[in-house]
Amino acid sequence: GAGVSQTPSNKVTEKGKYVELRCDPISGHTALYWYRQSLGQGPEFLIYFQGTGAADDSGLPNDRFFAVRPEGSVSTLKIQRTERGDSAVYLCASSPTGGPYNEQFFGPGTRLTVL
Amino acid sequence: AQKITQTQPGMFVQEKEAVTLDCTYDTSDQSYGLFWYKQPSSGEMIFLIYQGSYDEQNATEGRYSLNFQKARKSANLVISASQLGDSAMYFCAMREATSGTYKYIFGTGTRLKVLA
Lengths: 115, 116
Hints:
The complex is a heterodimer.
Chain A: E1 5-7, E2 10-13, E3 19-24, E4 31-37, E5 44-50, E6 53-56, E7 65-68, E8 75-79, E9 88-95, E10 105-106, E11 110-114
Parallel strand pairs in A: 2-11
Antiparallel strand pairs in A: 1-3, 3-8, 4-5, 4-9, 5-6, 7-8, 9-10, 9-11
Chain B: E1 3-5, E2 10-14, E3 19-21, E4 24-26, E5 32-39, E6 46-52, E7 60-61, E8 64-69, E9 74-79, E10 88-96, E11 104-106, E12 110-115
Parallel strand pairs in B: 2-12
Antiparallel strand pairs in B: 1-4, 3-9, 5-6, 5-10, 7-8, 8-9, 10-11, 10-12
């Protein structure tokens, strides 16, 4: 079956612009996570969705970051007024449920570059 | 607060030899899950192995085993019979079960290079 997909694979934008990053999880997975991975670092948790609701958004760095999952499948991470420090790879992962013992299935990531 | 520490930025191993990648963790939760992921240069994170805090037996998955020492709060990954395709970044991660957080916390990773 299809894995987690993310679009675009690369996004280059200018400082101050708005960007949207899309994640299409594995069909039937109710749990969806967004991470940010900077060069030489491990993934950093941003937000977790269980179904349509954001059950934990404690990792979002500030109010320029927002994410939605309106129908409980595809999710969009939205970044307003981008800054150069937002440059990173944004990873999406899904899992059958939100339980703590589940492995996560990761997408290939979106590399965001803010000039 | 939960924390993962990987103290080996880089490791080398000869092909067909075994290698141990270190991971220590910190948590006040009594129940938690520990995970190892591989990230090749292509960038995609690949799940390798999982250990629950309640498991008394060390987890094994093919050539991967997890050396779980709960009292020492360590969860080292052992790769047996290393192959060239094992060259990648390896991340240890943890998720608490009862603290109310849904975060998976990752370490900074260890870059493994397998030598022919």
